[in-house]
Structures are given as C-alpha cells and as structure tokens.
Amino acid sequence: MLKKIQIILFVIVLSVVSFKPSFAATDSQIQAGNKLRTLKILAGYEDGSLRLDNHITRAEIATILVRVLGYENTIIVGMEEQKFKDVKDSHWASSNIKKAAKLGLITGYPDGSFKPNQDITYAEITAMMVRITKQDKNLEGVWPYNYINKGRQLGIVQEENINFNQKVTRGTVAELLWNTLLVKIK
Q1: In terms of CB atoms within 10 Å, which of 30, 51, 127, 131 comes out highest?
Q2: CA atoms within 13 A of residue 85's CA, in its CB half-sphere
C-alpha cells in the first residue's frame, strides 16, 4: 500500500513539475519579431533577446505604435494635453503614451488612468492595429467583434479561434504588427 502511494505521489509531482504553460513563440512570430527588429520597430533587451514569449504592457505597445508610425523623435501638437493620473512625466514611456493617445491609437480609462504596466489583451491589440490602418471608421457591430472582424477582413488577424480577453505576448504583437504593415491601404 505504501509503495502504491509513493508511486502515485511521484507521478503527481512529476506532472506538476513538468507542466509549464506554453507561451513559446511560434516560427511566424519569431520571423515577424526578427523583421521588426531589423526595421528598428521592436527593440530587444540588454541580452539581445526579444523575449517574444513575455506578455507586453500598455506602455510598451504605446512606444511600439509611436515608433512604427515614425513619431518617436517628434513632438505632436496637443500631446501635452494628454494627461493620465497614473503616468508621471518621469515615466520612461510618458512621451510615447501621450503621443499614442493624441494620435487616437490607444486610450485611457474612464477614471483618468492609463495603466501603463497592465498587460494588453488580444482585443485591445487588434483594435490598435486596425486604428493604425485608419480603417476603423463606421465599424459595424459591438466591441470587440467589430475590430476583430475588421482585422480579419484586412488580413491582420489570421487565427480562427481567439480568446479576446487573453493577454498577448510580444510574439503575438510582432505577428499582428507585421500583418498590419502588409495591409494595403485603400
């Protein structure tokens, strides 16, 4: 009896230890990330890695959006009016958050916050990518389906089964951003 219990415990411990949630970047995400790094849109970390399996924050995506549009070293008229109660001027991404908000690519919350360290969801990043294409006018349907459907129509979203509330990784963002760059603007 003791031997059976030990075997069962061993199997349980082995299963728990060997189980890791899978956020590993796909080949297409790695390719997109490398292309975006070459274009200096996606920056790597100090060790040279892109960490495509890490989640991405609202501050990071605001910076990437500003960079992809070429506004990183530009002052945008009215950006100083973009104030968020949780983003101090000393925040590393303050300027890019204000620019992205002024450009209408990303918004704050009704309580006046931006939540710069909050991870973004698939629905949020898809909406941002559709906004970059400037094809977000007169969308039909309700949030987030209106943006997801438009993203599919444009070729940005290529996955069929999507959990809209799922936090996205840097790899997912790289792939969606690359798809967005390939969209033919009408």
Answers
A1: 127
A2: 5
The whole-angstrom separation of Cα 118 and Cα 55 is 10
Q: How far apart are CA 25 and CA 22, in angstroms?
A: 9
Every domain of the chain and the residues it spans: 25-181
Residue the block writes with tokens 């975006």: 36
**∠ at Cα 35 (30, 41), nearest 5°?**
110
pLDDT confidence bin for 76, thresholds 50/70/90: confident
The pLDDT of residue 23 is above 80: no
Per-residue tokens: 166: 């799922």
The DSSP-derived string for 75-130 is --TTGGG---TT--TTSTTHHHHHHHHHTTSS---TTS---TTSBPBHHHHHHHHH
Q: What are phi and psi of 88, to 5 degrees?
A: -80, 155
pLDDT of residue 8: 45
CA 173 to chain centre: 4
